[in-house]
Amino acid sequence: MIPAGSLLCADSLYKTYGRTPALDGASFSIHPGEVVAVLGPSGSGKSTLLHCLAGIVTPDRGTITYAGRELSAMPDAERSALRRTEFGFVFQFGQLVPELTCVENVALPLRLAGARRKDAERTARHWLERLEVEAVGAQRPGEVSGGQGQRVAVARALAASPKVIFADEPTGALDSLNGERVMQLLTEAARSANVAVVLVTHEARVAAYSDRDVTVRDGRTRDLEHAG
Amino acid sequence: MTLLEHQGVPAEAPPVPTPPTGVAAWLRDLGLGIRLAAGGGREGWVRTALTAVGVGLGVALLLTAASAPHLLHERSQRSQARAESVAPGGPDAHARKSDTSVLRISAESEFRGRTVEGWLMRADGTHPVVPPGVARFPGADEMVVSPALKELLDSSEGSLLRERLPYRITGTIADSGLVSPGDLVYYAGSDTLAPADGGHRIAGYGDPGEGEEMPPVLIVLIIMICVVLLVPVAIFIVTAVRFGGDRRDRRLAALRLIGTDVRTTRRIAAGEAVFGALLGLLTGVVLFLVGRRFVGHIEMWGVSVFPSDLVPDLRLTALVVVAVPLTAMLVTLAALRSVVIEPLGVVRGGRDRRRRFWWRLLMPVAGLAVLGLTGKVDKSAPVDPYPIAGGAVLVLVGLALLLPWLVEACVNRLHGGPVPWQLATRRLRLSSGAASRAVSGITVAVAGAVALQMLFAAVGDEFNRMTGQDPSRAQFYTFSQKVTSEAAARTIKEFKATKGVEAVIGKVEVYVTRPGTYKDDEIQPTTSLIVGDCGTLRELARIDSCKDGDTFVVHPRNDKELSDWVDQTARKGKEVAISDTPGGKSMRWTLPADSPTVVARHDPLGEDSWGIMATTGAIDPSTLPGATTQSQIRVDESVEDVAEYVRNTAAGLDPAMRVSSVKSVARDEKYASVQRGLQVGATATLLLIAAAMLVAQLEQLRERKRLLSVLVAFGTRRSTLAWSVLWQTAVPVLIGLTVAVAGGLGLGATLITMLDKEVTDWWLFLPMTGAGAALILLVTLVSLPPLWRMMRPDGLRTE
Lengths: 228, 799
What we know:
The complex is a heterodimer.
Chain A: E1 8-17, E2 20-30, E3 35-39, H1 46-53, E4 61-66, E5 69-70, H2 76-85, E6 87-90, H3 102-112, H4 117-130, H5 146-159, E7 164-168, H6 176-192, E8 196-200, H7 204-207, E9 212-217, E10 220-225
Parallel strand pairs in A: 3-8, 3-9, 6-7, 7-8
Antiparallel strand pairs in A: 1-2, 1-4, 4-5, 9-10
Chain B: H1 3-8, H2 22-38, H3 41-66, H4 68-81, E1 102-106, E2 109-111, E3 114-123, E4 142-145, H5 147-154, H6 159-164, E5 168-172, E6 184-189, E7 200-202, H7 216-240, H8 245-257, H9 262-294, H10 314-336, E8 339-342, E9 345-348, H11 358-374, H12 385-411, H13 419-430, H14 432-463, E10 464-466, E11 476-480, H15 487-496, E12 501-513, E13 526-532, H16 534-540, E14 551-555, H17 560-569, E15 575-579, E16 586-590, E17 597-599, E18 611-615, E19 628-635, H18 642-653, E20 658-661, E21 665-667, H19 669-703, H20 705-713, H21 718-754, H22 765-790
Helix pairs in contact in B: 2-9, 3-7, 3-9, 3-10, 3-19, 7-12, 7-14, 7-19, 8-9, 9-10, 11-12, 11-21, 12-14, 12-21, 13-14, 13-21, 14-19, 14-21, 14-22, 15-18, 19-22, 21-22
Pfam families (chain A): ABC_tran
Protein name (chain A): ABC transporter ATP-binding protein
Keywords (chain A): ATP-binding, Nucleotide-binding, Transport
């Protein structure tokens, strides 16, 4: 059943890698502008759930609905187009194209969606400024710090005006101070743009930035509303 | 003693080991590198395996090349052993008849483009000499055949050839009697062969001669082929020892963290490379030995070799064994000079340090200077191979050195463009060295090949002779020394009845003399008497009207003196004498008085015949003593195997009848075999280069697996990434091919000047450049499936 007003919703997802079950009937939903943290120990199926929700991986069974459309039934090209135009991504590491400058990295999703180079880079600079890393725009990822790189990745995720951002351990490779700042900027920017954020983490400190937690254990999900 | 007092006394410190220095330090660090490579887990082994396979392929090719001297020597020895021994009177003298002598005639033929060497033999006595590899002299209607011929005759493919060789197979020729395993050879026994049929008497086998000297031009070509084929192999080995270098550098950073200094780290890296190279050496030896076992079953462009001939030269092998690990070590040390390995990561120094142009230009210029100073190749003096090979190596290696500078200079000027183009050019800008390395092999190979093509074209006129033959009027011609009764008529009749034959120009020819007695200092007037049907005679002379029974006096064109000489014998209404041997018993024949005089015309072989021409109704060709028969045959080339039908008919008429193709250009056999050798070698080199490029491409993709997954995750089209990979390969290849064409043309022109020839065609680079471009496309296409696989989301999984 699809919860009323939800933007992205998954119901009874099953996914197996070889003989290892990754998802075993997991369900999930998120509303526009909502930040939901997906928590769980290593190997619990958090990332697989995120990959299924983002249309990167197709579940063996179950349904995923995005804005009223059945995601799991879409062909690969359509899902790719959706990821390009409606979704944004932030990963733990290795996500920026090393040979492009930071501005070009942020502009990349826009250019892939067909935007002109100059327009794409203007938007990219705006987001770099909002994420407080405009100074590194001309530098390549290898020349900036981990925290700056992660902010560039957040700017890239937000640049194409997505409806949902999928963040997989976005602060996993950062120190606590940098991690806090990245989370602050990510959630603030997302909320102000009414963007939903699916945040996979195993850190309670990071999950604190979310509106709601979903715990994954042995491939199954459990919803937890935040008290505050 | 108090504790304080005790503190004052220095405690005996444990002895600090003195670190080894000099050679000992080198050995320790290299050893450590080898241990790291051997125990580096899966990643380390993948890297080592890539290097080992790459180096192994190169080493296998080098060992094959090192076998060339032994191979050529053995082949030459066997070839000479089966040649007939020279009779005491010189090469053209016949041996004396004895109990061991043999009468033989060549019955060489061709089957679907392959030469079938054959001899008809008749023993003079009871103990005839046998050719090498033959156990027993074949009896009448028996033959011994080479294993390849036996296989062909036993197969359905060889059924047409079986018709031509109807003899009973009584044995096979051993390897000692063959030049190569693919040779099609037979020795057939005969009980009718006579000297009158063209039989030649021999006393034994084995030509101890030195063999013919290679012309200097061909020696230059061979030197160039060796250089052109082996330099890319060496470059490939250099490239292979750097496979997985990025990953290794990161591993070395960890060593820096635990306190190793920069020098030690580099030596450890060199040790890792040496390990890969040593494994590669081993792999190469194994590949060579395994390949050697199967080489006897492989035939390329008619070239095959016996495994026993593939024995690498000891000195060359030693050179390979020493040079490969040494190169690996030096290349790694040189490569690490532009890399700063810090404890927390690797910084590539090459990015900021611009490559210098001037010293890279030195080498090709020096090469051209060496070639220029060598001067012209003297056709009468032996060729000194060292300056030519050295100059060519300098030019070709110099091109490979120029390439990184050019690639860097070009990609730094490439801006903007669509996403795939941007991704590709930026990637190239960041690692132009790797991109240049990947294409340096093909650059050198194409440059060398362009130079060789130019050389071949320029010297072609020395080895390709215009025959003046006209293949549009006839495609085959036959020649037989055997004239039996009705032979000429039968020859023509049977060829005409052969499947696919459209027309036959068949003539029987004897020499005729003017009867009479002549003084010693007088030359007896002599001319030819040619007998054929009207159709044949019209092809040989400008005859307007002809009917059976007619005769003609034929004058050569535009040669009054020779025409007068013909008329001295061909006197209308007078007799001519026909005899098979000078002074032998002759027959007389009267040339009819009404014989018109006509002028000769070129026959399809481009030859003119003159003298007396007579139709078969005027003189019976079977009565002519010592006559020879020649037929020129026009066929319908659309009929499959028409050449084989013609040859079968010829063999049925006379097993020793020679059937040759009418060709407008005749190629020198040595020149042709050098060109064949180049084809075989170039194929092997190009395959090696393709393998190297593929490995380099896959390695780069593997390095970027996670990034590719991320790009796909945020919706990048696969086609975008595929185009990016294609551009990434195509841009350096395009630059490389441009360098190759320029360098190849320069090198080719210099070598041609050395040979005192002129460049005949500046556009000869097009086929090789096309082949190079096709190779790139192939490599890109082959690397697409792994690219698809690496774009799977598995790359995003971190757990």
